From TrEMBL, chains A, B:
Residue stretches making up the HTH merR-type domain: 14-83
PANTHER family per the UniProt record, alphabetical: HTH-TYPE TRANSCRIPTIONAL REGULATOR ADHR (PTHR30204:SF98), REDOX-CYCLING DRUG-SENSING TRANSCRIPTIONAL ACTIVATOR SOXR (PTHR30204)
Keyword terms: Coiled coil, DNA-binding
GO MF, one example: DNA binding
CDD domains: HTH_YyaN
One Pfam family, short name: MerR_1
Source organism superkingdom: Bacteria
Coiled coil feature spans: 95-129
The name this protein goes by in its record: MerR family transcriptional regulator
InterPro entries for the chain: DNA-bd_dom_put_sf, MerR-type_HTH_dom, MerR_fam
Amino acid sequence: MTSGQPLPQDPEPSLTIAQVAERTGLTHDTLRYYEKAGLIERIGRTTGNQRRYQTADLAWLEFLLRLRETGMSIADMQHFARLRSEGDATVADRLAMLREHRAGLADRIRALRRNATALDDKIDHYEQLLDERQQGTDETT
Amino acid sequence: MTSGQPLPQDPEPSLTIAQVAERTGLTHDTLRYYEKAGLIERIGRTTGNQRRYQTADLAWLEFLLRLRETGMSIADMQHFARLRSEGDATVADRLAMLREHRAGLADRIRALRRNATALDDKIDHYEQLLDERQQGTDETT
DNA sequence: ATAGAACCTGGAGTGCGCTCCAGGTCAAGC
DNA sequence: GCTTGACCTGGAGCGCACTCCAGGTTCTAT
């Protein structure tokens, strides 16, 4: 088993919302919005009702950010978060979600690479146009 | 010079908005919105004021779609379209825009690939969890 | 000639993902 | 004790990229 309850003298590095905002690049408004929306479970509070983020909260947030950066919608992240909160019984479902998301991501990367190549062609075309234009400034054929 | 004005007997393959919608995957509303927004210049009309898209319109639309798919905003596409409508003098500006967009795209593809790798790790982790859970169903260590 | 589908316009409405606001509470330094 | 800045809540507002609507016109097939 693991050892400790969060005793008072536990040096668990709890962060304020401002510190988390700086670390993640999110605003405090977005952090509160994510909590309200159920993307992150209710963050622990001080006696004065102020949030204190623990290491595990940070790790989950960073995972969420990876999902977001790869284009997952808030709705899907809510779904994933709900499954997670339901415990180990939902591991298979969560795995399925991640696999599907991963597959979609692969598709999107492939599409972007194809479009990048097309863009390169267009850029080449523009470079040629520009060369001709600059060469032709004096109208001599 | 090139040869023909669009004479009546010119077999220029003009398409209705519905046909263009089907070809591009855009809705007719989106096509009209893009025209209203200045992303595409005013499409030629029949005497009865209905749009007829020409080959050149299609080509431009497909280019716009590539810009969109690679994440360019409507505002930036408007900017590009405006430059284009101003003629050859803006070739250098347009080239600069495309190069910048291309560079951002490269960054985004790199970030997606990094995130994809992180996702793969997470998936591996979930697969292991699932294996343990299935093996451990009978509680024998 | 006429029915019905496709098209037209200007403008309002929608969904997403935040972002801002008002009005208050809490914590730390002077 | 008091000020000042960080934090709290519920709810309204915003920008983007469409999407829909009402009311009218045009095209096509019979």
